[in-house]
């Protein structure tokens, strides 16, 4: 930080003030005393002074403090026949003293009192206000130079949006991959801004607003950076939370100021990130209201499509909670388009990996197709982080290029956490090995279950062992048989413990598995209509009373239906549990051999796992 003389003065003000009062309180009185010449080597009573005067020993008297103190110069036998200065306290009324001194021809000198106290009081009363006023002036001037307005104290209502006449984000549309549909929408807007005659010739109007909706990490903000870099028009960017302050009316004032600046620079683009911070549905009623936020939203609605309109201003907003936005904000005329930015599919992941692999040294043997197939459910941000973690691991191992081993380790680290210390206790290691082999063999022998990718006893995160499954393709629709197969695969670990060690030795290792099992079975009954209750949707996925929704009843069904739901969930889980136990019993010999191999190697690859099982039984053809 550059230290200017103004900053130096601002930092020095408190020290100057404190130092001044310390000097005034402690050193000024001492200085006054040292400047006075009323010091003496000894003291004498007034009576003794009169005796010295009568004996003619007093030669000179200096009177101080308005006649209350005197310093005499005396000489006599008692004083060693040397002139000595002696201090004497004089009484309040001694009119005969002066006459007596004159009678004895004593040199008299009176010293008036210096009124230094009044002087220092005046200085003290003036210097502090002057320093305070000077400091405030510098503070205001500093805030003016940084904010461009009349100081921070006077600029609460000013917009905090970052303004760029020609945005240089370093991102263009070629850097955006995996979300081709959303990119096409923005490319059209850029064309509208650059060549509006193509559209106006057929009566088309420029969209007033585009809302980007999608999970975190899918590239919503990246798209905004791309349109800023491509459009070559003024660009305003701000976060939704920057509108809302503790002061009433500040948010609405900032919205007005933002759109005023935007209209002055039209055509232009306003990007509002995380608009759900200010655009939340109004009048929820539960959890307390936030009138300031609602007034900010009202002003935003008016500016986007009110009486005056906002011709030439395109508002681009991003959120991952479109379900909580106010309906008035989402209507055409405000946000004409809602662009979904979803988790990329296989082709999208491959395109994203190609973009992020440009500046990475990846070994020629590594295929990005394999990485794309192994990462279903990964967002663009996850894939970027994956390659970065792999590069960090490569540098840590002092390798020259990223290999598939670093990719695999990076995937495991992102999904499950950091690698822990391998188990040493043989009993715990054997129990965990049976648990993980139970998951793997049930998933392998079921036709509708995903393939096993690998089984490992190396702890990661909170898990002491892991079994990885990789789907053969992206699945948007899941059948009843596939859900049941997943339930059985999740129960495989508990079933192996029961068969091998008995009910008394069953551990808590399946707690997370049982939560998943119960959740899948409940969704089959209450959401997917896959039970004897019938094709009914009995529970909503998103019902949040704090958003003003789902406030009527906790359950949308009767107690009788609730009992049937519990019975159906129990029957589904029990049916799957019995089938899982049969698979474990029928393949006990294979399980024992696989456990011995897993304990020895600690990790078994999915392909090797299937080859071993195929020697003892026929593997089902996966769908």
UniProtKB/TrEMBL annotation:
It comes from the Eukaryota. CDD domains: RecA-like_FtsH (cd19501). The chain crosses the membrane at residues 7-26, 118-140. Its EC number is 3.4.24.-. It is a multi-pass membrane protein. GO terms for biological process: cell division; proteolysis; PSII associated light-harvesting complex II catabolic process. ATP binds at residues 214-221. Its cofactor is Zn(2+). The keyword ATP-binding applies. InterPro entries: AAA+_ATPase, AAA_lid_3, ATPase_AAA_core, ATPase_AAA_CS, FtsH, P-loop_NTPase, Pept_M41_FtsH_extracell, Peptidase_M41. In the C-terminal section; belongs to the peptidase M41 family. Homohexamer. Acts as a processive, ATP-dependent zinc metallopeptidase. This is ATP-dependent zinc metalloprotease FtsH. The lineage of its organism: Eukaryota, Rhodophyta, Florideophyceae, Rhodymeniophycidae, Ceramiales.
């Amino acid at each position: 930080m550059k230290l200017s003389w103004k900053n130096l003065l601002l930092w020095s003000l408190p020290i100057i003030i404190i130092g001044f009062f310390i000097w005034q309180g402690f050193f000024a009185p001492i200085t006054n005393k040292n400047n006075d010449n009323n010091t003496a080597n000894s003291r004498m009573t007034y009576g003794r002074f009169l005796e010295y005067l009568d004996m003619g020993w007093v030669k000179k008297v200096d009177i101080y403090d308005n006649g209350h103190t005197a310093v005499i110069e005396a000489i006599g036998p008692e004083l060693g026949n040397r002139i000595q200065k002696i201090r004497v306290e004089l009484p309040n009324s001694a009119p005969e003293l002066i006459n007596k001194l004159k009678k004895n021809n004593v040199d008299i000198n009176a010293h008036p009192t210096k009124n230094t106290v009044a002087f220092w009081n005046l200085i003290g009363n003036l210097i502090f206000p002057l320093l305070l006023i000077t400091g405030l002036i510098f503070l205001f001037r500093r805030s003016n130079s940084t904010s461009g307005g009349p100081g921070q104290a006077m600029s609460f209502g000013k917009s905090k949006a970052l303004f760029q006449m020609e945005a240089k984000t370093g991102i263009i549309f070629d850097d955006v991959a995996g979300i081709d549909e959303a990119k096409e929408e923005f490319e059209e807007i850029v064309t509208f801004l650059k060549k509006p005659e193509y559209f106006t010739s057929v009566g088309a109007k420029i969209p007033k607003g585009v809302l980007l909706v999608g999970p975190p990490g899918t590239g919503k903000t990246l798209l905004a950076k791309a349109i800023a870099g491509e459009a070559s028009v003024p660009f305003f960017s701000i976060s939704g939370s920057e509108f809302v302050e503790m002061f009433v009316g500040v948010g609405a004032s900032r919205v007005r100021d933002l759109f005023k600046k935007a209209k002055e620079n039209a055509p232009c683009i306003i990007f509002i990130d995380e608009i759900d911070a200010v655009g939340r549905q109004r009048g929820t009623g539960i959890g307390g209201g936030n009138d300031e936020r609602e007034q900010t939203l009202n002003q935003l609605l008016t500016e986007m499509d009110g009486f005056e309109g906002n011709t030439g201003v395109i508002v681009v907003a991003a959120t991952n909670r479109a379900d909580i936005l106010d309906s008035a904000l989402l209507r055409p005329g405000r946000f004409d388009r809602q662009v979904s930015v979803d988790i990329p599919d296989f082709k999208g992941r491959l395109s994203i990996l190609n973009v992020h692999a440009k500046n990475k040294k990846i070994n020629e043997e590594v295929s990005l197709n394999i990485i794309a197939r192994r990462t279903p459910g990964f967002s663009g941000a996850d894939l970027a982080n994956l390659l970065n973690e792999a590069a960090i691991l490569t540098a840590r191992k002092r390798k020259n290029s990223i290999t598939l081993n670093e990719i695999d380790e990076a995937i495991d680290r992102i999904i499950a956490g950091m690698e822990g210390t391998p188990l040493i206790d043989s009993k715990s290691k054997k129990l965990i090995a049976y648990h993980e082999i139970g998951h793997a063999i049930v998933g392998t022998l079921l036709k509708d279950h995903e393939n096993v990718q690998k089984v490992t006893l190396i702890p990661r995160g909170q898990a002491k062992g892991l079994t990885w499954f990789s789907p053969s393709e992206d699945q948007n629709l899941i059948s009843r048989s596939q859900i049941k197969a997943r339930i059985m695969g999740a129960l495989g670990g508990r079933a192996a413990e029961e068969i091998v060690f008995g009910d008394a030795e069953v551990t808590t290792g399946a707690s997370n598995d049982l939560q998943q099992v119960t959740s899948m079975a409940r969704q089959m009954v209450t959401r997917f209509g896959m039970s004897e209750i019938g094709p009914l949707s009995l529970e909503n996925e998103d019902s949040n009373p704090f958003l003003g929704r789902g406030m009527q009843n906790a359950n949308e069904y009767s107690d009788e239906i609730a009992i049937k739901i519990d019975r159906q969930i129990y029957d589904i889980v029990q049916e799957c549990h019995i089938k899982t136990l049969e698979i474990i019993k029928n393949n006990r010999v294979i399980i024992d051999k696989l456990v011995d191999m897993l304990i020895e190697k600690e990790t078994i690859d999915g392909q090797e796992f299937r080859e071993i099982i195929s020697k003892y039984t026929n593997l089902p053809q996966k769908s």
